[in-house]
TrEMBL record:
Lineage: Bacteria, Bacillati, Actinomycetota, Actinomycetes, Mycobacteriales
Residue intervals of the Ppx/GppA phosphatase N-terminal domain: 25-311
PANTHER family per record: EXOPOLYPHOSPHATASE, EXOPOLYPHOSPHATASE 2
Transmembrane segments: none
Name of the protein in question: Ppx/GppA family phosphatase
């Protein structure tokens, strides 16, 4: 009996990612192909309110390559979701027309969909906690993206969630203009993050959490640097942990570096070097809040996230 291959695509503010998967006999999805490209779709959206033509062109080129891969692997189902940047852009119809043209070559009628922050949170949570021991629940899952950060609390299912308008790209474009950023710029960024987290944590009672799980590129890169990896190694990063003091030290180091210095770090993706300082500020503020409110003193980093949740949703 043939088993349907399926694909999930996550198009965020900073990157577009593809997971081609196949259900196993036990019902779990098995990776066939997983890939990420930095396309910076959200370039300037916070300031202009619309997608830049060059950002759509970069995203189109990456998605066209993904369509070829899906065809080569015999994908029969596909779901593509667009998150923070696509919720904010006034010219998003141009973006969706492009996705319909390309995805229709794989599955007729397929097109990207904008999901709400709540939907994004639920998919991130599903992908992040699938392999975790339930004895460690409740979990607070933090999906730190380019334009937004989802804070999600739950056990087997989501019990509370909030999407905050702070992400590594948005925060960098808004506050961190120097290279490296000045102390005043970092202080301004912290103020923005704290204001957003105050709102998020009035909705999400993180004091009930026992385990903090971080997903997406800022989190995984922080783990790689904390471990001193000589290259980005998903196997070494997946389900790794970082203690509070080590986490703050790595974040301080990244915030104080120039972009060139960050880019020279072996595990750093070149498309992340200019914005990871903003992500590190978000992580530091979260780490302190979760220590103070929930007594959590380490971060567990998962390579599985919203992308896995998207694929599972059509399995």
């Amino acid at each position: 009996m043939d088993v349907t291959r399926l694909a999930g695509i996550d198009c965020g503010t900073n990157s577009i990612r593809l997971l081609i998967a196949q259900p196993g006999d036990d019902g779990r999805l098995r990776d066939v192909h997983r890939e990420m490209r930095i396309v910076r779709l959200g370039q300037g959206v916070d300031e202009t309110g619309k997608f830049a033509p060059e950002a759509i062109a970069r995203t189109r080129a990456a998605l066209a390559d993904y369509v070829t891969l899906m065809a080569d692997h015999g994908v029969e189902r596909v779901r593509m979701v667009a998150t923070s940047a696509a919720r904010d852009a006034t010219n998003r119809d141009e973006f969706f027309a492009m996705t319909g043209e390309l995805l229709g070559k794989v599955v007729p009628g397929a097109v990207a969909e904008v999901i709400t922050g709540q939907q994004e949170a639920a998919l991130s949570f599903s992908g992040a906690v699938g392999e975790l021991d339930r004895a460690a629940a409740p979990f607070v899952v933090v999906d730190l993206g380019g334009g937004s950060t989802e804070v999600v609390l739950g056990d087997r299912e989501v019990t509370a969630a909030h999407s905050a308008d702070i992400g590594c790209v948005r925060l960098t474009e808004r506050c961190l203009h120097s290279d490296p950023p000045t102390a005043e710029q970092v202080a301004d960024a912290r103020a923005v993050v704290r204001e957003q987290l105050d709102t998020a944590l009035s909705v999400v009672p993180v004091q009930h959490a026992r385990t903090w799980v971080g997903v997406a590129g800022t989190m995984t890169t922080l783990s790689a640097i904390a471990q001193g990896l000589s290259a980005y190694d998903p196997a070494a990063i997946h389900l790794s942990t970082i203690g509070y003091d080590d986490l703050l030290a790595v974040c301080d180091r990244l915030i104080g570096m120039t972009r060139a210095q960050r880019a020279a770090l072996p595990p750093m993706h070149p498309g992340r070097a200019d914005v990871i300082g903003g992500g590190a500020i978000v992580v530091q503020e979260l780490a302190t809040v979760l220590r103070d409110r929930a007594g959590i003193t380490e971060l567990t980093v998962s390579e599985h996230d919203i992308l896995d949740g998207i694929a599972a949703s059509i399995a």
